[in-house]
Fold this sequence. Notes:
By secondary structure, the chain is α/β, with parallel strands linked by helices. It has one domain (2-182): Rossmann fold. It has helices at 2-7, 27-34, 51-65, 81-86, 107-113, 149-172; strands at 19-21, 39-41, 70-72, 91-95, 118-125, 135-142, 179-182. A 5-stranded mixed beta sheet has the order 3-4-5-6-7, with helices on one face. Strands 1-2 form a two-stranded parallel sheet.
Amino acid sequence: MVALVKSMDGDHSAEPVLVLSNNPDAGGLAKARDMGIPTAAVDHRPFKGNREAFEAELHTALLTANPDIICLAGFMRILTPQFIAKWEGKMLNIHPSILPLFTGLHTHKRALDAGMAVHGCSVHRVTAELDGGPILGQAVIPVLAGDTPDDLAARLLPMEHRLYPAVLRKFASNDDTKVVLFS
């Protein structure tokens, strides 16, 4: 989130209007407030078993901010197709794998278990298919001998911080040309 916000400088087509989290204690909320960005939190825990009610609250918070683009970053809740349809074509997500490989969780461990020579991250449009929307950018790093999942995650993070802002800049300018970065 911080990398995205910092990338939205004077010549960027986008500007941050809200940082929204499902965790009221998320560190990103304090960082956003320190950067002068409005924040909101919709705690998912009181909505256990009622995803539609949780998403209705998310939708209300988003409508108040009226974003043109929604960038998911560290939002670890699966959104329903009904919610996604309300924001169709406006939602981006970053995922820590070279999609379509390793959708879902534990991507770094799964890449190592599969014996991958490279690993990476992808930014994609959000669709109802989990981590299955059109890919707008990917970054690749080598897998090194002795790597652990934590090693991969740490080496990949700077690439995520480069890739997502680059994709957002193009997307905000209606440019769907894929971004590709190599370590």
